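Subject: Sanity check before I submit

Could someone independently write out the structure tokens for this chain? I want to compare against mine line by line before I put it in a report. The sequence has 243 residues.
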Amino acid sequence: MARRLLSSALVPSGTSVLAAIAFVFSLASFFLSAGLAAIVLGWIVLRRARRSGHAIQGRGLAKASVALSILIPVFLFLFAAVNSVHTITPELSCQTNLCRLGKAMLMYANEHHDQLPTPSRWCDLLVSVGRVDPNHFRCRGTQQSRWRTIYPVEVYLYLRHRSANQQKGPCDYAMNEHATSLSLESNVVLCYETGPGWNQVGGPELLTTDHHDGRGCNIMFLDTRVESVPAERLGQLKWKPTK
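---
Independent answer below. Compare away.
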């Protein structure tokens, strides 16, 4: 008789299995449907356990499933909120990069009779004189994208997109082909954002706003001033000196 009671006590009841299922759902609560299922199943187990005088097993798992299904989404939402703040920084980081490039060009010009680096070799020349770190040629806007959701599939796509962008090219800026000397007009474009490449030189045909979701792009002028220019004002930029 004692063996029968012992063996029956080792067999989990249906409610215990239900609690285990609720716990499994809670571990996958980053999916909205799984989190709701965990809360509902956990509540059912706790209610049945209360009605049975706490004789039904699985109350611990039920409580854990309810707690996890609430805490995990809250944590993910907070993580997404922090990431959304970080998405503001690529524009500022891009401006900082252009400022550093401007200082490097200014130092180069001071050593070469006010002549800027040769446009067709400007990246190579700035690197060769040790004025610029290779990371300063990259705009973080090409390496980050906004997370529209917090689900793992979106995280995977984000990481894959970032990895692909990191392999496209070492420089996200181009030099204006008409900018050859600091003695030209200060409001003429010197450097601007473009697609990945190296030693890129040209005019407005290379300019892109894709790095910052089409809102505009950062422009460095001949006085090494850097300005974030909105997309609607890009057509007003001066590319050729009047003299």
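---
OP: Matches mine. For the report I'm noting this point. The first helix runs from residue 2 to 10.
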